[in-house]
Structure formats: C-alpha cells, structure tokens
Amino acid sequence: MQPLITVEGIHTYYGKSHVLDGVSLIVGKGEVVGLLGRNGVGKSTTLKAIMGLVRPSRGRVLLEDRTITHLPADRLARLGIGYVPEDRRIFPLLTVTENLRIGLHRRGVTEARKRQLLDKVHHYFPVLAERRYQAGGTLSGGEQQMLAIARAMMLEPKIILLDEPTEGLMPRMVSHIRQIIDTLHSEGVAILLVEQNVPLTLQVSQRIYLMEKGAVRHHAAAAELQVSDAVIHQYLGV
Amino acid sequence: MDIAFEQILIQTVNGVVTGMILALVASGLTLIFGIMDVVNFAHGELFMLGAYVGVITMAATGNFWIALVVASLIIALLGAALYLITLRPLLGRDPLNTILATFGLSLVLQNYALWQFGPVARKIEEPFTGHFTLFYLDYPWYRLVIAMLSAGIIGALWLFLKFGTYGIWIRATTQDRMMAQAMGIPVPMVLTGVFALGSGMAAASGVLFGPLVGVNHAMGLDWVLKAFIVVVVGGMGSLGGSVAASILISLLEAYASLWVSPAQAVIVSFVVLILTLLFRPTGLFARVPR
User: Fold this and answer.
1) Which residues in chain B are contacts of A74 at CB distance < 8 A?
2) Which of B91, B181, B187 is the best substitution to test chain A (most A C-beta atoms within 10 A)?
C-alpha cells in the first residue's frame, strides 16, 4: 500500500481540553478507511486536523511525501483533499449549481472539464440536476448530503474526508451513499470515513481504526472484524 | 397646512436622489459588515479621503471622471493596506477589538486630513452645471446623474456578486467561512478584496457627493452615521436591504421636511432605527437563511 495521507502523532487542544492525544493513522492511495469510536473521542477533530481546519500543536500530517500540517485549508483543497463535514454545511443561499461550481475555479480546469464534472455528479445524483436552480438551504437532509458529497467531488480529490454521511438519513438514502462510496473507491478516490453506522463502515472499508480518548487504540483489516466482536464492543459499546 | 401635490412630487424626487447617494455609501459598509463581520467606523474617512483624492486628481487632470476612477482605485488600495495592517491581525478576536481599531483608524485618518489639507473646505467642480425645471424649481441635472450613477455602481456590484466567479466566492465566504476555505476559496484574500471593494465604493461616493458639499475632513461623519442607520434598518449585510432602507429613510425625511425644518426631519431616521431595533432587530429587509 502506498500511503496517501499519513498522520503522525498529532495533538490538538480546544482551549484547555486535550482533544487529540497523539493520533496516528495511514490512508493508502485509493483505499477506504473507517474511523470508528464513541461520540467525543476525536474522530471529527482528526478529519478537521487533516483538512487544516484545526491546527495540531504537535505531530504532523503528510500528503504523499509532503508535510501539509500547517497549510491552510484552501491550499489542501487544491492539493486534492475533499471534506464533507458532519453537518453537511452546504451554502444555504447559493443555488445547487453555485454550490457545485465553487470547487471548479481551479487552475488548469478547462470549461470542457468543468462541464464533464458537472455532468458526472448529475449522473450520480440526478436529483441535483432537477434542483439545480434551487437554493441549497431548501433541499431535504438527504439531498443536502448528496450535494455536500457532490461538492467535494468537484475538486477531483485524491481523498475525501467523509464525516458521518449517513447520520439522520432514511435507509434508501443510506444505501445510495454506500453506492457512492463504492463508486468513488472504484475510481481510485481514497476515503477516510467517520461513521456511527458500524455495519456499513465494515462493509465499505478495507481497514478500520478504532479510537478512544483522543488516540487510535486498535487497527485491523475490515474483513477481520465483525459487529459482534469483543473489540468493537469494547470501543463502541455495540 | 395644505401641501401642494407638486411639493410632494419634488420631495419624492429629492428623497429618491438622496436615497441613492446614501445607498452607495451604505452598500460599501454593508458589504464589509456582511462578509467580514467588521463594523467599519473608518468608512466615513475613506469616503472623505476619496473626495480629497478626487480634488487632487481634478486639479491635475481637470477631468471629473478620471478623478472618480483614480480616487476609487487609490482608496481601494489604501483600504486593502489598512485591512492587512490593522484588522487582519484581529480576526477571530472579540468584535469589540475591531470596532475600537476602526474607530481609532477613523480618528487617525480624520486628523491626518486636517493636518494635510487644513480646515478650509475644498470644492470639486461638478461635471454638469445645467438645470431643468421641476415645477417651480431649477433642479440640477448633476443630482439626477449621481443618483443614476449610484444606481449603476450598486447594480454592477449586484451583478458581480450574483454572477461573477469571485462574487460567488464572496457569497460563499459570507455564508460559511470555514467551508468556503475547505472548498479551495482563499478566504484571507477574499476578505482583503472585499475591504478594498468597500473602500473603493466609499471613495466613489465621496467624489460623486463632493460637488454638492465642500470637501473637508469631517464630511464623512453625517453620511456614515446615516449609513449605519440604513445598514441596521435594511438588515446587517443585506445589499438589497440597504438600498431599500436608504430610499425609505430618505423619502421619509424628505416628506417630513414638508412640515418641519430639514434639521428636525433627521429625527425621522432615528425613529425608524429605534422602531426597527424594537420590533424587527434583524432589519426590515433581511433575508434569513433557513
């Protein structure tokens, strides 16, 4: 496995609260990696630290061989890291198309390529084509989630940091998100997936990291784990 | 007291014309507040410095339109520099810090102008000197021209924000700064650009308004006070709201001055401000995201 993202012993603080206590993990090129743990163990903060939205006080993050620990998020987005936050955070007053087009204004992206990318996400998410002139804030929760993923895809990322994409969604929508993760994986896009839905995470991921109290405590191939395993029970209480 | 219909029409024209000038001052202010959360107390001084740069350029070139463009560009650059030096280091801190910083900046710029240009008002020659007859009045064409130019500049800003690539960046940054950055938008650059744009608009209004009043170091105070009222009444950060509130307040003041003196009519804008804060603190025309 060729490492795409390497996180080496990062520590972060929110005020005096020590949120990440030496998190280390690796995501290989084109790999889907699940990051599991109870609420508040620092999974989302790990994604934010990789994305440059939270500055680690110690440790480092590498994209391939390049240290990116202190690069701003906009540079990281242009280097190929897509981010889909837990609460979707689409731009509510921009139309669906405007939300998507934001990621297209990058150096070297031709008009033809922009059209291709828009067509591609419309193919994956036909509802976004139907609602292209609608304000993002008027979409349903599931549609907003699709828009958040599609928006990240417009950056043509090497990796997408996906934070609880199925939270609060109906089963049909969960199954659609799962298909999208599989499709992105088949296209060679790596995914670091934070999820509370353990069965789904075990199904779509190749490897799993289990977090507790701000650090990775266990690491295994997804195929070796089952929802009923003691280790899952220990770290997730499932 | 009987009010003639023509007096009401004249005051309507006056109200709309003054409203459009006020809207131009207020739109720079609301742009900076809406996008950067910065209450810019130095906006009036950028308006005043714009007028002075206009005076100097007019003296050098004799052309009002060149003065308008040069003043807007120079003050936009000055605005960018002031933002980088004084406000950017305060990002993320208590908003009181930026309020105090812009207030301090306002005093420095005002006293600089007093020191540099003296207390005597300068004059910018208006580019049109003709009048037309509006009932019993000789109404200057120039007042109509600045109202139309203000409308044109605000319209161009709206089109830029609505359809321009960087306009979409600005709107995205307004709505969610963190996600804008995560989508590859260079947010610090956008913020600097917005401050420069707002400053340039203040300068443009200073030059346009210069021929109607003398250019002096304190000329920004009244207009910016009124622009702040407009920004609050229109809805903090709402460009359309600022335009609507500017026209509403100017019309109300114009109509009020049919009964009382213009100095007393100013009270109307404060009444509207207080009523807005009491009954609709988000502003009369604000669009609230769902």
Assistant:
1) 181-187
2) B181
Specify the residue for token string 């994956």. A124
Interface residues on A facing B, Cβ-Cβ cutoff 8 A: 51, 53, 72-74, 77-78, 83, 85, 89-94, 98, 101-103, 105-106, 137-138, 151, 155
Instruction: List, as ranges, residues 148-167 from B with C-beta within 8 Å of A.
Output: 165
d(CA B23, CA B239): 9
Interface test with chain B among A105, A140, A162, by most B beta carbons within 10 Å: A105
Q: Whole-model pTM?
A: 0.85
3-state DSSP helix/strand/coil percent for chain B, to nearest 5? 75, 5, 20
ipTM of the complex: 0.90
Average pLDDT, chain B: 89
For B111-150, give the DSSP string.
HHHHHHH-SSPB-PPPS---EEEETTEEEEHHHHHHHHHH
| Contact yes or no for B222/B42 (Cβ under 8 A) | no
**In 3-state terms, what secondary structure has residue B281?**
coil
The average pLDDT across A28-44 equals 93
Find chain B residues with C-beta within 8 A of A105's C-beta: 165, 169, 184
Ordered structural domains, chain A, with CATH: 3-89+160-236 (3.40.50.300)
- Using one digit for the tens of pLDDT, what is the confidence trace for B98-152? 899 999 999 999 999 999 999 999 988 888 788 888 777 788 888 888 899 999 9
Point out the least confidently predicted range of A14-23, A214-223, B191-200, B278-287. Answer: B278-287
Domain limits, chain B: 5-218
Contacts of B89 (CB under 8 A, 6+ apart): none
* Cα–Cα distance, A65 to A54 (Å, whole number): 21
Q: Is A32 helix (H, G, I), strand (E, B) or coil?
A: strand
Contact A51 B182 (CB under 8 A): yes
* Chain-chain contact of B184 with A105 (C-beta, under 8 angstroms): yes
Res. B289: pLDDT tops 50: no
Tokens 């202190």, residue?
A70
Task: Provide φ and ψ at A157, rounded to 5°.
Answer: -75, 155
- Cα–Cα distances (Å) from A162 to A74, B148, B186, B262, in that order, read 17, 50, 22, 61
Give per-residue pLDDT as tens, B253-276.
Answer: 999 988 888 888 888 888 998 998
CB contact under 8 A, A138 and B290: yes
Q: Which of B165, B172, B187 sits opposite A91 (nearest CB)?
A: B172
Nearest-angstrom CA–CA distance, B7 and B135 = 9
